[in-house]
Every structure is written in C-alpha cells, then in structure tokens.
User: Which sequence fits this backbone?
C-alpha cells in the first residue's frame, strides 16, 4: 500500500512511525516547512491525564504509557518527567467539580489529591494563597521535551524507511470515483496514493475543504511567554483556574506560561502582543510574587485547533472518499494524544478495526450528536 | 538637557574615584562607568561561571543586549555591562557549589544530553535532579525583589522613531526634525555618536573630521524642541500592538506607536570560533576600541588579533599606539602582508587554541604547513567578522540573505525600505563606510517623511538615491545590487562557489570551541545533530541543541552557527538559513511589565 501522511508535526510523525512499524508499505510524509514546524514546536510541552471527560482521560493515560515505552527505543531522550499539575481553585464550586471528577479519575487509577490552602502553603511556599479556596494536585501529569519527542519519532520512522519530503507543500487531494487517487504537490502533477492521512493541525481546514468536507473545527491563536532561566524551583505546572494563567519551569530553568487572552480566531499572523505579556506578568506576579524579579525573554504564538467539543478527531467518516483519514482538532492536547492516535489510526487504516478507545473520537460524532463533554482546556 | 555631552570619552579621568567590593576584595573604580569596566581596570577578567559547563567567563562585548553573564550586586542579579559602578557596591560572582557543579558539568553538555545512558530510568531521575539543581543559574530566592524602584510605563507616539544614535541615526534625526517632524531617537549607550566616538570607518584615503560632524549634528538636535533623545535605552523591537524600548537605568518601559521607524542599530562583532574562545580575555573589536578611546582602560600588554582586514589593521595600529604588542592571525594566505610592516602577521592558520588559568595567557597557532607557534598574550580581539544586527529585521520576518564576504544582510531597497513603514540605515544595512551611512541616514529620513505624507520630497529623495547609487559604484560595492534586486523580485540568493569564513579557526569540531555561550553549545555538539539527523537547517539545529534560546537570544550565536554548518558541509549559508527571532529583543523584568497603564 502507498500511504501519504500530510503534515510533519507530532501527529503526522507518530502516524508515519506506527504505519512503518506495521510494515504498511511505502510511506511518505509531506511537510510544508520542516518537521515540527507547525504547532508542535510551539507547544508548552506538558501532558496530563486529568480531563473532564472519561474518554479523554482514558485516551491520555494510554497515550503517555505508549510514549514512555517508546522512549527506550528512541535515539532522542524525550525527557519525560512526571512533575504533576497543580490546579489552584478559588471557589467552593470549583472544588466540588474537582471532587466529583476525582472520583472518576480514581476509578481509572489516576486519582489525585485535593489540598487545602494550608497544605498548598506548606508544600509550595512560593505560591501566594490569597483568595484561594484549595487546590487539586495530579501527580500523574508531567512534562517532556516536545522537540525531542518529535525528533525521536522522526529518527525511528526514518530508520524504518519512511520517506520525508520537507519544504514540500501539498496543494490538493485528488479524488475520483469516491476514492482518493493521490495528492498534488507543489507545481508538479499528481502523486498517486492509496491512502491519504491529514495531520496538518491548524491548516487542515484549508486542504480538507477542497474535498467538500467540513467539520466544526477552528484554529485559535495562543501565545506563550518564556523568562530568562533561573535555578529550578517550580516543579509542577501551576494553573490558576480563575484566570486560566499557568506557570511551569523547564529543565533549562526558564519559566514558561500563558494566560487566557482574547485573540482572533482563525489563521492569521503569529506575532505576539504586549498586552498579552502584561496580562500574564500581572497574573504570575500576583500568584508567585518571587517571579517579579524574573525577566521575560521571549514570546511566541501558535494555534490550538479547537473542535466544537474540545476533543480531537481521528479516523474517517464512511461517507468520505475511500482512503481519506484525518487526525486533528486536538484543541491544545495534541502532544499528549498523538502517541496513541498514531497507533490506533495505523491499526484502523491497515485492518479497518476501530479500537474501543478510538470510537468516541470518530469524525461521525458531530452528525450523530455524540459530542464529548470536555471542559478542562487551559491556556 | 536630554543628554550629557560631557560624558564624552576623554573626560573619564575627571570621573569621581570610588571603592566597591567584588567577591570580598576591595577595588577602585570610577563613578558611573560600567561595572565590568571597573573590574577590568582592576585586572579582574573572570567575572562568573557558565551555566552548564561551569567555565570561567568574562567581558566579551559592551552591548546591553547580550547579557552573557550576570553578577549579584547588592543582592540583585544584574548585568555588569549595564550596571554602573557605585560607591560601596557589593558584588558577587554567581556560582553554585563548585564541587557538585564540576561533578555534574560533563553530564550537562549538549553532547551528553541525548546519550543512551539517559534511557535508564533510575539514573535518569538522578540526572534530572542534577540538571535542575546544579546548573549555574540565578537563584531567585537569594535575590531581593526591588519594590521601591520608581519603575513605570510610558506611552510614546512620535512621527519617526530612530533606533541607534550613530552617524546614520543622527543624520536621519537631523534631517527629519528639520522638516518639523516629531522625532524620538533611542540609543543604548550613554552617549551619542556610536562608532564616531571611538573608530574611524572611512573610505581608505578620505578622512572626515569626526568630532566636527558629531558636534554639528548634536548641536542641531539639541536646539530643536521636536527631538527627544533617550540614552541608555534599548529598543526591544516590535510586538503586534506596540514597539517597545526599555531603559534599565530608570526602569522605564516605553510603549511606542510611531508612524515610521528607522533602524540604524549598526553591526555586531561576532565571536571567532577557536579553541577556548569562551575564556575571559577574549573581547570583541568594538569593545577594545571603547576601552581605549572612551573609558581610558589599558586592555593589556600583548594582544592577538584574529582576522586580517582593513578593520583589524586599524585596531592593531591603535593598540600599538597605546603601547600594546600586537600579532594579527588569519586563516587564509595573506599576500599583501608586507604592506603593513608595522604589524606582525601570522597567516594560513588552520587552528588557534588559547590557554590560561582564569583568563587568556597563551595562544598556540597552528599553520597549515605544520608550523606551530606559541605566543604569550593577555587578550584576544575578535576582529575577523562583523555582521549587521539583524534582530529587528528578523522579528519583522524580513528576508535576510547571505552575501559572500559580507554576511547576512536584511534585504531592503535603494529607498532604505525594509517593510511598510520600517526603514534601515547605516551599518545595519551592511554598508562599510561613514560616507554611505550618512547618505543612508538622509535617504531613510526622506523615505519616512514621504510615507508620512510629505509628498513634495520625492524629488529630493530621487536625487539622494541617485547620489547614493553613484557612491556605491564609486566604491565598487556591487553586492548591494543583489540586495536591492532581492527586495523587488524576491530573487533567491544562491552561492555556487564554496565560501570561506574569516572567523573560523578550528580544523575540526572541538569540545572547547564554543558556538553558543548562554547554553554552552560547542562545535562538537553541532556536528552531532547535523551529522546524525542530517539537520541542515538552523531551525532544526536550534531545536535539537537550544542554541539561540539563551539570554542573548541568538545575538552572538545564530550567525556563527549557520556559517559553521555551512563551513562543515560546504553548503551555501542561505540554505542553512537563520532562525525566527522572537519579541521582545531584550528581556524585560516582570515587576515592570505588571505595572498598570500610565503608572
């Protein structure tokens, strides 16, 4: 079988690797710029298993397990570190919500701990607890190095014979007789393929709409701030749920974070705004006062590809042209989901089997009105 | 008065003598000169340790944008290049516990980072702890937050914002303010004049009266109420909603919305790549000149100048006049070396290694013919290669092309237009001589005025451009044609001939030849990612190694990394490319950013 994976981000790389591992045939990855270019390299590089919906929690749990296992095979160390997520909650209502969710998480085997403000003060003396009602700590969550994960997949895929076409833009998908015939690359003619997998993140709508398919997914611009490096002290990712500001520290020592800030929807420029930087600075200075002495060194922007129910879309709709698959709409959770998405989608492409874990995320859920109720989206 | 003419270079002897403390030793300095200069005066070259490999580091360049090394002064982490020396200042190097750092330092290199050993889960935990605890970084808990500093945020909305107070910037300010436009000029150093203060960059054979020109321009600007000059203020570049500048001196952040911008921010002396090139005592050419002409500091007794060129010969002669013994070293065959009998030249080098305890004491020069020479020196001057400062062009996503023997140049047209309302002039365009800088200053001012709506200036602008093109032909600067052509047609520069780079002095990748000083990335680390993964794009090398992500944000390493990869694989640097440069251009303290509007 000849398969084209469009998009060289984490999603495309994972799919390509998993296809190659299953000896699917001739696999080509097309990337408009260079591997990791899109939203992968702009990621905050943190993962969590605690989601509002059971479907997402289960999926993330399995996915991280896959990545940890794969880390031993990779040439690049993805630096997986379970540092935990600390959710700062400012109302009784928020605490109730987490209490309820924690029961579900406990059943899945990833229960966390609810902390009182006193306990927060004790365990994280650098956090200003004014106005907090409590906190939730999820020790199973953590961090990895996003570029090294991608490069790890890339070098594994390359060694399995996957062909990479970087700086090669896919212009169109050619369909004839209800079946994918191939893709149009650059100015050249048709490249024939049996299967085309779209893993083009925020840019998927542009290409998929050429085949007449429309799904309720829109790119949303997000910005991130990074400070100068300082001695490591913030171990978990700290989220202030009220302002949706988060702060975490990379192993290099930089403090990384973002805040919910009104930015335009849709694809546009990736320039950052001073207003955003100021909003984040204000939020972190309030919550972690010692950071007032730190200096913001860099900002960048990327996209969350937000689906209408904040959950990813994978697989295909039987009504689509035969051979067309998608994996996108991760709503900001692409990195944590991609290892399993690659595996399940590869299985699906080769055998047609739809795994239990994959079933809720099929693109058909929108017309069947089986949305996934995901409310925990941060940043 | 908006600026202080008396803080001129030669009056430094009148500065008040003061005492301060460095690592418990009592030292003498001059009031308000940069701390790093006071330290150098006292023979203190090694100021701190590097982040991962814990090597001694010192002054490389006097630009406040590099932030290569931080010290603790009165309990606050500061950049000794920006911080003025004050009476009774207590300064400490920033060092972790030496024994532990030394133990772990070898595990912290880029070379080791991807080692198979790291996949062992138990050892990995240990390693993570080591990385996080023992990297030599500022400890926020040991520093005090400066709460009572009068920090503030101010809004500025001039007609034209000019970045850089050198000849091009001053000329542009002079012309545009004479048209009645509101002009703000931002200069990072404590005085105006840029290179005019400490260097001569004239067409060989033509000398201009530098102080006459400078004083004339400054007098004009001083007399005009529509000109505002911000000294000791660093332009930090463009955000989507504002351009910003920051003054460390009075903790003021300027939010700027200008109708036009002129970037006249000059060139950067790039570090040379040789063994132990991070050692204290390796200094950029412009810094040496500032030491001699602005701060009255004796840089040392014996110097090794890297790179043979008009520039280095000029610097060599200045050093000689100051009583310094000078040897110039070059990596190619110099045929006209005897035309400068006053300076000793060693050419055809394949490798240079400097050695010493805490700072440079010795240099070993290896010639291609197998001859090895050992010199006793006490400082090294990196004068082989300077490149236009591409930071703002990079932030604006302008195209930047590599031109043989010149460097990476932001592409612009003959009207000095970089993008919409952003213009460029002077050394930042790559032009070599003062005469060109001043014409470029005028053209950029006229182009900006035209953009703002002074339609009647188009005739004058055409005339100036005509004159400019004539001068370029006269001085035989043909590569500018290529730049202008690229601006118009998006023409892709391609080099079909192998390029040699003047600042590379190693024969093979070495573990002690550094590319990135912030993250301690060596040439050996570079070859590892490039070779292993065939990453021949700087964007990918950056992501693999963390170059261009340290405190200097690629100011010192980006171009060097790109040309070093080109050198290794004999590729066109235009194919390796550069990385995207992010805003802000200089790091900004959170305690200033958190301030409300108009605070």
Assistant:
């Amino acid at each position: 079988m000849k398969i084209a994976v469009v998009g060289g981000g984490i999603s495309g790389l994972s799919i390509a690797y998993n296809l190659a591992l299953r000896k699917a045939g001739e696999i080509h990855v097309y990337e408009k710029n260079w591997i990791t270019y899109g939203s992968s390299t702009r990621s905050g590089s943190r993962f969590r298993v605690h989601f509002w919906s059971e479907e997402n929690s289960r999926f993330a749990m399995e996915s991280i397990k896959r990545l940890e296992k794969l880390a031993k095979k990779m040439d690049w160390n993805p630096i997986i570190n379970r540092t935990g997520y600390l959710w700062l909650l400012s109302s009784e209502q928020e605490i109730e919500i987490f209490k309820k969710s924690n029961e579900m998480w406990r059943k899945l085997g990833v229960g966390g701990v609810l902390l009182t403000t006193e306990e927060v003060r004790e365990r994280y003396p650098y956090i200003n607890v004014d106005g907090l009602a409590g906190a939730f700590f999820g020790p199973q969550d953590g961090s990895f190095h996003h570029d090294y994960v991608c490069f790890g997949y890339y070098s594994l895929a390359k060694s399995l014979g996957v062909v990479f076409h970087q700086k090669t833009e896919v212009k169109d998908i050619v369909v004839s007789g209800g079946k994918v015939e191939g893709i149009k690359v650059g100015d050249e003619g048709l490249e024939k393929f049996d299967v085309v997998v779209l893993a083009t993140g925020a840019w998927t709508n542009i290409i998929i709409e050429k085949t007449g398919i429309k799904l309720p997914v829109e790119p949303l611009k997000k910005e991130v701030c990074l400070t100068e490096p300082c001695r490591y002290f913030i171990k978990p990712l700290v989220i202030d749920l009220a302002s949706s500001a988060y702060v975490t520290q990379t192993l290099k020592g930089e403090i990384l974070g973002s805040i919910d800030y009104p930015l335009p929807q849709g694809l546009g420029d990736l320039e950052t705004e001073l207003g955003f930087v100021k909003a984040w600075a204000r939020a972190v200075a309030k919550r972690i006062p010692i950071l007032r002495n730190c200096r913001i060194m860099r900002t960048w922007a990327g996209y969350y590809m937000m689906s209408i129910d904040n959950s990813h879309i994978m697989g295909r709709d039987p009504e689509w042209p035969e051979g067309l698959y998608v994996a996108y709409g991760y709503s900001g959770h692409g990195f944590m989901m991609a290892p399993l998405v690659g595996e399940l989608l590869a299985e699906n492409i080769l055998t047609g089997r739809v795994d239990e874990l994959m079933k809720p995320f099929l693109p058909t859920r929108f017309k069947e009105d089986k949305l996934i109720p995901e409310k925990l989206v941060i940043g | 008065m908006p600026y202080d003419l008396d803080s001129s270079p030669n009056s430094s002897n009148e500065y008040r003598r003061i005492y301060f403390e460095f690592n418990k030793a009592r030292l003498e300095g001059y009031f308000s000169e940069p701390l790093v200069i006071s330290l150098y005066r006292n023979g203190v070259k090694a100021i701190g340790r590097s982040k991962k490999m814990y090597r001694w580091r010192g002054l490389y360049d006097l630009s406040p944008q590099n932030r290569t090394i931080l010290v603790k002064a009165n309990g606050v982490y500061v950049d000794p290049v920006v911080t003025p020396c004050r009476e009774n200042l207590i300064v400490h190097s920033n060092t972790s516990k030496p024994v532990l750092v030394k133990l772990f330092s070898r595990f912290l290199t880029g070379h080791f980072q991807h080692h198979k050993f790291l996949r062992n889960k138990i050892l990995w935990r240990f390693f993570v702890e080591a990385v996080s605890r023992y990297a030599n970084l500022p400890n926020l808990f040991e520093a005090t937050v400066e709460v009572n500093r009068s920090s503030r945020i101010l809004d500025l909305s001039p007609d034209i914002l000019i970045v850089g107070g050198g000849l091009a910037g001053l000329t542009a300010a002079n012309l545009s303010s004479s048209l009645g436009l509101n002009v703000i000029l931002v200069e990072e150093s404590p005085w105006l004049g840029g290179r005019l203060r400490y260097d001569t960059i004239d067409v060989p054979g033509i000398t201009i009266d530098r102080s006459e020109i400078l004083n004339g321009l400054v007098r004009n600007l001083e007399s005009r109420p529509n000109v505002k000059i911000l000294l000791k203020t660093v332009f930090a570049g463009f955000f989507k909603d504002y351009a910003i500048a920051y003054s460390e001196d009075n903790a003021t952040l300027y939010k700027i919305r200008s109708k036009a911008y002129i970037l006249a921010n000059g060139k950067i002396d790039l570090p040379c790549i040789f063994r132990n090139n991070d050692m204290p005592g390796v200094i950029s050419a412009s810094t040496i000149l500032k030491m001699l002409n602005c701060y009255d500091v004796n840089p040392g007794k014996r110097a090794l100048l890297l790179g043979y060129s008009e520039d280095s010969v000029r610097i060599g002669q200045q050093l000689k006049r100051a009583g310094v013994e000078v040897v110039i070293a070059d990596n190619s065959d110099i045929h006209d070396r005897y035309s400068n009998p006053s300076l000793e030249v060693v050419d055809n080098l394949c490798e240079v290694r400097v050695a010493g305890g805490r700072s440079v004491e010795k240099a070993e020069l290896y010639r291609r013919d197998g001859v090895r020479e050992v010199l006793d020196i006490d400082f090294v001057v990196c004068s082989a290669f300077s490149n236009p400062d591409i930071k703002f062009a990079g932030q604006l996503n302008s195209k930047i092309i590599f031109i043989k023997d010149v460097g990476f140049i932001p592409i612009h047209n003959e009207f000095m237009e970089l993008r919409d309302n952003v213009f460029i002039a002077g050394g930042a365009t790559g032009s070599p001589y003062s005469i060109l800088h001043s014409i470029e200053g005028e053209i950029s001012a006229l182009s900006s005025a035209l953009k703002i709506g002074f339609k009647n200036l188009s005739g004058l602008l055409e005339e100036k451009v005509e004159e400019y093109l004539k001068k370029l032909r006269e001085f035989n600067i043909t590569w500018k044609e290529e730049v202008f052509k690229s601006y118009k047609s998006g023409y892709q520069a391609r080099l079909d001939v192998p390029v040699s780079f003047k600042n590379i002095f190693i024969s093979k990748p070495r573990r002690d030849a550094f590319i990135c000083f912030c993250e301690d990335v060596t040439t050996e680390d570079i070859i590892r990612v490039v070779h292993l993964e065939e990453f021949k794009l700087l964007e990918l090398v950056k992501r693999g190694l963390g170059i261009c992500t340290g405190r200097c944000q690629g100011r010192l390493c980006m171009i060097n990394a790109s040309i070093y990869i080109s050198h290794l694989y004999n590729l066109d640097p235009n194919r390796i490319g550069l990385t995207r440069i992010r805003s802000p251009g200089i790091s900004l303290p959170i305690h200033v950013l958190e301030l409300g509007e108009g605070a």
About this structure: Chain A touches chain B through 52 residues (CB under 8 Å). The first strand of chain A starts at residue 2 and ends at 6. Chain A has eight helices and 19 strands. Chain A has two domains: 2-74+146-216+309-365, 85-142+218-307.
